[in-house]
Structures are given as C-alpha cells and as structure tokens.
Amino acid sequence: MEEVDIVVIGGGSGGSAAAGRLSEGRKYSVCVLEAGGRNTSIKTTMPGMMPFQGPATNWRFETVPQPGLNGRRGYQPRGRGLGGSSAINAMLYIRGHPGDYDEWRDLGCPGWGWDEVLPYFKRAEHNVRGADAFHNDSGPLWVSDQEYAHGGSHAFVEAAAALQIPRNDDFNGARQDGVGIYQVTQKDGERWSAGRAYLSEKRENLTILTDAMVERILFEDDRVWGVAYQRDGQAREIRARRAVVLAGGAFQTPQLLMLSGIGPAEHLKEMGLAVRVDRPEVGAGLQDHIDYVAAFETKGSYFLGRSLGGSFKSLGAMARWLFTRKGPMTSPFAEAGGFVKTPLAGERPDIQFHFLIAIVEDHGRTRVKTHGYSCHACVLRPESRGTVKLQSLDPGVPPLIDPNFLGDQRDVEVLKHGVRAMYRILETPPMTQFEGKDRYPIDLDDDAALERLIRARADTVYHPVGTARMGSDEGAVVDPRLRVRGVQGLYVADASIMPRLVGGNTNAPSIMIGERCADFVREDLG
Questions:
Q1: What φ, ψ does residue 483 adopt, rounded to 5°?
Q2: DSSP state, residue 166
Q3: Looking at 97, 354, 371, 463, which residue is catalytic?
C-alpha cells in the first residue's frame, strides 16, 4: 500500500496552496490526488482560450431546476485538473471586502478577521506593482496588470467615472468601491493558476497523482487513516500517517464527506450509507453570486465576435501570443468592472460589475455570430441558501446542486437596483459611441418587467461556497482551524468552509484558505 504523511484530495486552488506549503522544507511527505490532468496545454496556459474548455478541464455541472429562474437548470462550471477553477477562470484577482472577514470573525471564527487574513493574502502574492501595506512581490501567485486591455473596457471605466463613480486602480487596496481595470493572475502573459504557483517545483517528498478519482476517506474508529481512490481502472488505497486535507470545492467536498459517512444522517441512510458522524450542515448553506448579463450588438469588428474579419483578428492574436506572449490573447475578456452600493447596501458594496469585450449568451455556450459587448451585475451578499446532496454512491456522478437562486426576494430587489445602475453606465458617453443595440430591451422603470427578465436570464457568476461551514458552534462542519468536527486528522481547505460569501471573486480567498490550512496542519502535527 502507498503511504505518506499527508494526503491532499484535490489539486485546485485551496489544495494546491495547502500541498505546496506542506511539502516545503521536506518535513512531511505529501501526496496530491487529483481527478483531472496536469493542465499544461495551451488551452489552459493561453488566457484567451478560457471560453474553449471541454470535459478534460471542466466538470460542467448543472443545478437542479431552479424555481426562482423559471424552472431553468443553471450551469456550474468547475475546474478539473491541477489548479482547479484557477486553470479555467477569468483570472481576476479579488480578495473581497475587509468587512467580509471581520464578519466571519464575528460569526464565531476567531482568527479570521481582516487583520489576521491579510498576511496570508500577501504571503501568497507576487504583485508586479511591488510590495506595500496591502501587497507582496515575492509570493508564488503572480498578479499582473492587463497591458492590452481593450478600448471598450477603458470606455466603460470612463463612463462610470462620468457618473461620479470613483476610479479605483486597486480593488485590493485601501478601498474596494469604484470602477477600474482588474488585475489578473498571470505571469509574463500566461495564466498563472494555483497549480503552477504551488505545484510546479519538483520535490522528492511531493507526489502528484492525476486522473485519480477519490471514492471515500478511510477511518479507524474516529481517526482518518487513508483514502480510497480509482486510477487506471484499479481500486487503490493510500495511507495517510498524519493527516488528510480535503479540497474538493464547494460541490465535491460535501459529496466526499457524505460518501465517507459524514453528513445529514437521514440523507445518508436514504442513500444506504452508514452514518459515521451526523452533521446536518454538510451540503447545507450553499451560497453563490447570482448574476444578470446584459448583451449589446455592435457594427463592425471592434469588439469580439464571430465573423470573417473577427476570425482573422483572432488568428493573428493567437500567433502573436505564441511567439511573444503578448497581445489580445492575454485578455480575461472580463477586463473591467467594479463595486458599487445600491440604496439597499450597508457599509459594503452590494453589486459587482464585470464588463466583457464580447457578447456572452448562456455562459458562452450559445454561439453568437455578431460582434458586441456584455456586462454583468451580480449580487455580492445573497440571502438565498441552497444545498448539495448525493445523487449516487458513485463519486464520478455529480451531486445534486440546488443553489436556490432568487429564492429570497431580497436578492431580486438588490439585483434590480444593480441592473439599473449598470444600464446607466452603459448609456453614458463614451460608451454611447459604440451604438450598442440591446438584445433584451425593456422599460427599466417597469419593475415587474425587469423582474421577469432577471428570472428569465440570471444565473451564476461561478462563486459557490459555504457547504462545509466553519464556526465555533457544534453545528459547524469545521472548526476555526479547519478541522472536521467529530473525527481526527481530517481538514478542509477550500471555499466550502466560508460561513458567508465574500463580496468579490472567490479564487484568491480560496488560495488564502489553503495557505492557512497548511499552517494549521503543521502546527497541529508539530
């Protein structure tokens, strides 16, 4: 039987950070079990290939039918392979608002306030702008400026500024509110995923097993001792002498906990599973950023689109990137955006914008021949809560994902304000120079019509969290040191532990969680 000190399940953002840090210094032998591949092809290293991810790099989950979305099934892309979602996402480096982490602390997570987590964000970061009170320039995760941002993205920022929305050159600095061009997790024009940041250095004490589908975590009494997995068509087991770190993400971490007998007892019994730990909140508390996308058609090929001229431009951009790692193929497409407060907000912004230099329909899965641009407005602190449940005892079968989108009317009201604010920007010069034609025009003053449109078109902007909640209370799945309650030697290092969804993109926070988990494991093991 294979045997190491620490097994890390999942090579995504949190798992890569945890495994990378735990294997430093060669004190512990570490094995990463990753269901996907190594993600070293041009499809993941070229930033502009983001829309073209297939099943080898994207789990492509779907939700159960959503009553709040007129019965539609939502799309839930999740990264597969080393780097996880950081290998296929838009690369935007956003930490969230400092108040988000102070809220975690106040909810029963001591040690997770902003002052405590900022050093971990900085430790992870290699910002090309250099080090200061908010940033670091020597961490493994490269954070770069966009050197080739599209003119339309700059026009969006100028239009917002004309409406007295402040420009913000650093959403991770002194303040979050305002509009600007996002920084991205890239190094020298290439995508810099968490896998590349933390797992690219070869170490004798670090083993990475790709194409390894974990089936369950193994216990003796209440102590974890190993992991069962499938690889090359064979059932295998690996012994973990010291600890197991679970980093499957907001969907697959609760799935694996339940398959291992940790979860809501009634649900586990329904599935024919023995109950090791009755933990009702495993798979509960799912939160995600509900998002509305406006789309505008334009004449010509200034913005991206499918046409003969557009195809030639794209081929030229790809050739330029291949030879120089420069140009339009470094784009995250969602180049500009920002954070604003609606009349319903408290002290923190409650809406985030993402401006895209192409028309996006159904997450890019619907082909649009015309050129144009899109803009997202998302609810940063949704009140709706959903669940993740088992559909099958086969770990390769996706779980039942129910975000309960727009189940709480308060989210609808915030999103209506956000959509109206977004349109005010899009209808202000210099955005008006593009003469964009709205693909879904309505009277924005008609409250009922706007709600119908939102329910017909809204969906995720890819930030699911909260299904293995951290807290000090007995109901929490993990304690503030990320140890799973009721068993020994098992930790969780991904976005599932978030007690509340942060106000922003979740990749950087997930990496921070992996960094912190590594420290907790080291301290516990001594």
A1: -90, 135
A2: P
A3: 463
Nearby residues of 291 by Cβ (< 8 Å), 6 or more positions away: 376, 377, 378, 379, 458, 459, 460, 461
What is the pLDDT, as a whole number, of residue 299? 95
Phi-psi region of 25 (alpha: psi -120 to 50; beta: other; left: phi over 0): left
**In the structure, what pLDDT confidence band is assigned to residue 202 with cuts at 50, 70 and 90?**
very high
Give the tens place of pLDDT for each residue, 126-177. Answer: 999 999 999 999 999 999 999 999 999 999 999 999 999 999 999 999 999 9
The alpha-carbon radius of gyration of the chain (Å, integer) is 22
**Sole residue written with tokens 């929305």:** 165
| Residue 473: Cβ within 10 Å count | 11
Separation CA 19–CA 195 (nearest Å): 10
> What value does the mean pLDDT take over residues 29-46?
97
The CA distances from residue 42 to 11, 328, 330, 435, 443, in Å, are 19, 15, 12, 35, 44
pLDDT score at 1: 72
pLDDT average, residue stretch 220-238: 97
Contacts of 286 (CB under 8 A, 6+ apart): 250, 385, 386, 387, 388, 401, 402, 403, 404, 464, 465, 466, 467
Whole-angstrom distance, CA of residue 155 vs CA of residue 173: 23
Catalytic-residue membership of 463: yes
Structure tokens belonging to residue 329: 């193929």
Residue 161 CB neighbours (<10 A): 16
- Domains of the chain and CATH, by start: 1-97+184-288+388-404+465-501+508-526 (3.50.50.60), 147-181+290-379+407-457 (3.30.410.40)
Dist CA 92 CA 183 (whole Å): 6
Structure tokens at 150: 């599209």
pTM of the full predicted structure? 0.98
Contact predicate 116/167, CB 8 Å: no
